[in-house]
Amino acid sequence: MTSNVPPRAAARTWLSVFLAANVVLVTVFFFAGGVSDRPLISAGRLAGLYAAQAMAFQLLLVARLPWLDRRLGMDRLTSLHRWTGFGLLWLLVAHVVFVVFGYAGLENHNPADEIIVLANTLEGILRAIVAFVLILVVGAASARFARRRMAYETWHFVHLYAYAAVLLAFTHQVAVGQSFAGSVLARTYWWTLWLGAGAAVLAGRVVLPLWRNVRHQFRVVAVVPESADTVSVYISGRDLDLLPARAGQFFLWRFLTRDRWWQANPFSLSAAPDGQTLRLTAKAVGESSAKLRTLPVGTRVFAEGPYGAFTTLHQQLPNALLIAGGVGIAPIRALLEDIAGHVVVLYRIRTPDDAVLLPELQEIAKARGAIVYVLSGPSDLRGAHGPVLGPESLYALVPDIAERDVFVCGPPGMTAAVLRSVRELGVPGPRVHAERFSLAA
């Protein structure tokens, strides 16, 4: 249960205030340092400062800081990162276009010639051009049509160029930025912002995962088939009772065998952490997850996490409705062990053979007085009250749905349908908690 301010709202407010305060500071420093008599040049410089600020904010969003991640979740942080990235791209375009055209007009050059002149006469301009090109490459790789055609590892490798772009952009700002030359206060601000953002990434992406893995020494202790295409992997280690993992969260798992040590896959915990073992359950939807069935017992594991806001931290009301689709049952089954109050579980499957973990689910439900409904059939299945996950059907199964928190995890289509239904039934957005299937399972 939560305090008066929901954790998600508190995190969003903190981020908004942080960003707004920094925008105000940058604007004040810019005008205090003096503006050009050429409006295009001034607009371009200001756009460049906002772009630098957006880069630092991007680093904060991808740093995987536990406080933010537990409140917003990696899927929401990734979405914020994506939209901030597109904003950054347009700010950089504005910076380049306005500055180049402004100086070209001042010196009576055409824009193409002016780029060459600036690169040859001003320190740091060539680094800025390379940084801009790298940002364009990363932006293109982030477009939906490109992302869907890339392996995760390829997409991740391309994104590493963004760190090179950040470093080049920073050195460009140091070399020619008026904020650095203008005042000690402005220089102190920018150094603090950049170093703080870099430290956040280093701490969240490198130091914390390394420290946790050295401390806990994760190893595979059992591999248990759950169905023809689904398997559970049990992982043990040292002092797991000190690992801050909660039911509903996931890890990025690297199984350190010769042929897969370089692959990191996100799988949810399918049982609440008990201080002795962690369990993930995955369906063979690709080559990587299919190989889990043949993992040797004793395999060393490098785990990054726990991640995700799909936890009881966000429960606001005494009772809850849990809705799972397919292997999205993994975090839902874990949540059932941990969540408070009276619980109803809806488990959407295509065929009875797809109902993995159902006996465990029913056993937990019986012990705690919960209700489990298994809804099987094709995706367009309709019952007496319309689509099986439509608003009428949900209301027929759970008449008090508006007085419950709703947790949803499943394939994107199913999740979207459920979110539409619960909105129609009047469940407020802050009481609807959805984990993106691509991250959760």
Give a quick precis of the structure.
This protein has 17 helices and 13 strands. With 441 residues, it is of the alpha/beta class. The strands form 4 sheets. The protein has a 5-stranded parallel beta sheet, with helices on both faces. Strands 1-2-5 form a 3-stranded antiparallel beta sheet, with no helix packed on it.
Kindly describe this structure.
Strands 9-8-7-12-13 form a five-stranded parallel sheet, with helices on both faces. The protein has a three-stranded antiparallel sheet with strand order 1-2-5, with no helix packed on it. Helix 1 (7-32) packs antiparallel against helix 2. Residues 437-441 have low confidence and may be disordered. The protein has 441 residues and is of the alpha/beta class. The chain has helices spanning 7-32, 39-62, 66-72, 74-107, 111-121, 125-142, 144-147, 152-159, 161-176, 178-182, 184-216, 287-290, 329-338, 358-368, 391-397, 412-424, 437-440, and strands at residues 219-225, 230-236, 250-255, 265-268, 277-283, 301-307, 320-325, 343-349, 371-376, 382-383, 386-387, 405-410, 432-436. It is 53% helix and 16% strand.
Report the principal-axis shape.
elongated
Distance between the termini: 26 Å
Summarize model confidence as the mean pLDDT: 87
Radius of gyration: 25 Å
Chain oligomer state: single chain
The secondary-structure class comes to alpha/beta
Largest sheet features: 5 strands, parallel
Strand order of the largest sheet: 9-8-7-12-13
